[in-house]
Amino acid sequence: MKTMFPLTRRGLLSAGVAGAGLVVLHPFAARAQAGQAHLRIMETTDLHVHVWPYDYYADEAVDTLGASRTAALINAVRAEAGNSILFDNGDFLQGNPMGDYIAYERGMAEGQTHPIVTAMNEIGVEAGTLGNHEFNYGLDFLKQSLANAGFPLVCANIAVTQGSAPTEDETLLPPYTVLERELTDGTGATHPIRLGVIGFVPPQVMQWDRKHLEGNVSARDIVAAAEAWVPKLRDEGVDLVIALCHSGIGAAAHTDGMENAAIPLAAVDGIDVILTGHAHLVFPGSDFDGVEGVDNAAGTISGKPGVMAGFWGSHMGLVDLLLERQGDGWTIVSHSSEARPIYERDADRNVTPLVESVAAVEESVATEHQETLDYVRRPVGKTSAPLYSYFALVADDPSVQIVSNAQAWYIAQMLAGTPHEGLPILSAAAPFKAGGRGGPDYYTDVPAGDIAIKNVADLYLYPNTIRAVKVTGAEVKDWLERSAGAFNQITPGEADQVLLNPDFPSYNFDIIDGVTFRIDLSQPSKYDRDGNVVAEGANRIVDLAYDGQPIDPAAEFIVATNNYRAEGGGSFPGNDGSTIVFEGPDTNRDVIVRYIVDQGTIDPKADGNWSFQPLDGATVLFDSGRAGEAYLADIKGLNIEAAGEGEGGFARYRITL
């Protein structure tokens, strides 16, 4: 047996994190008596290959992510505690350009170690499970990537061959493992403990990575697998069962095949502690106030101690247990949970780091970090036309067009073979860098020619994930009516009226590709900036058509979008979470990168699917970047000209309606 926190080189280095100051004991450690021990269970989850605190898309260092930062929190806990153990909860193999670089370019030759596995070995992970993103590059790549992991990985609900019951499956990985350790009690005496560790992944991997998994493996329901395997794990004589649940905190009631099954999983008899992830949220935390089946104050899920540690290394999950020796086993006397952050953000969105990187973790993958920088700075495709957003709020725009194209391409693949195959696929996208409060230089401007991965940050600023919703033709129209709130009401016959509503954020100006329409600015906006109906009978969206025919209000459409919009962000009609028919595991950024790689040369020229309704004698003014003047001739169907100086360094433009 090995001690829970052996005084190896790693242990001595970890102790140094506390510095020369006094190490403050946790109350459980302070009050532990003979036969009582304080055990600290730590979690990393959803690392997504983020080792260095670096945003490869933006090509800049950041303070909000990185396992090298999380490692500082882990080392501090090891320095404070006599008994600690670290688990990883999956989604480590994919999710940033380093992951794509290893998978698509460098590869995994025999004997090589994947950089995230190298980092996890350096940090001292003692067991882990798979997340859904581990399957993104195929089973052979997964097998090669795990070969040099210095810790066991488990997954109970993915089978190579299924038996008549889960316990008769030939699982892809062992369903569970038993870790034999020693605990030091309050008097310094040591006692053995057997920890059972079992892992689970959403069964939706069979849909998300169908091309890699279909015919090779199958997935079982998380709770059904647990109900079968946990008793067998208990039969191994374990003292505690820790569930590594790469599944979010969703509904309290179990339904077969549910994606976010943490609450019913925690309720399975025999599970003592549950570590969750997948949802990129923080528990305990405000995201779960009032959620049935969880107790934020107590840090429990179905009454069991649990934690969810954010994503990309933003937090370290920590479950503290006060254990008591009873006969030959241990029972939980008290528990607490927290998710410790690596940074804090103030009311003005300013970030302050709370820890510094652990140099040994960064150094362990320094070569791959530099290779990734070279990769993101090198062209991965070409664009046949410039990508710019200077006029994204007044005309169909190439920077928005490429996002729409990529989303529609991806969703068409994901819905193939599903009940939704065959429905018309539209795509909704909005400009993110469109001046405004960002200033006169806050625009996308990528010239025609080579395009690098880091350029994708210019096209898509946020780490949203892809979604598809099913809406009616009437909801498509209202979706666009909501977007049209970006404009002030314009009076025919009047000159140089102000076009844009300054209170309307550009990220809420969704243009839906796949339909054609015009915007009648003489009408009032049906919605205010918050999405409330203020003019019931207003109809700014006119001549709305699909496939050349007036759109049928009752027809059904699939719209590719992002999680923010689909789940209600911006209060858009048809988007309240209930219309989602596909929840993709990939970020919209990743979708764009894959699309560029697949296409080789992209053609982002705007297709001109929307325009303003002519208004006799009316002209309007709006401000944009000075560099936009070079692209005026490219804007089709819009009578636009430079109109002098705007305010605050902007240039002014005039449109004759």
TrEMBL record:
Superkingdom classification of source: Bacteria
Xref: Pfam families: 5_nucleotid_C, Metallophos
Family: Belongs to the 5'-nucleotidase family.
Gene3D superfamilies documented for this protein: 3.60.21.10, 5'-Nucleotidase, C-terminal domain
Keyword list, A-Z: Hydrolase, Metal-binding, Nucleotide-binding, Signal
A GO BP entry: nucleotide catabolic process
Calcineurin-like phosphoesterase domain boundaries: 39-280
Stated name of the protein: Bifunctional 2',3'-cyclic-nucleotide 2'-phosphodiesterase/3'-nucleotidase
Database matches in PROSITE patterns: TAT
Molecular function GO labels: hydrolase activity; metal ion binding; nucleotide binding
Signal sequence segment: 1-32
InterPro entries recorded: 5'-Nucleotdase_C, 5'-Nucleotdase_C_sf, 5_nucleotidase/apyrase, Calcineurin-like_PHP, CpdB_N, Metallo-depent_PP-like, TAT_signal
Every 5'-Nucleotidase C-terminal domain range: 444-573
Annotated organism of origin: Paracoccus caeni
Matching CDD domains: MPP_CpdB_N
One Gene Ontology CC term in the entry: outer membrane-bounded periplasmic space
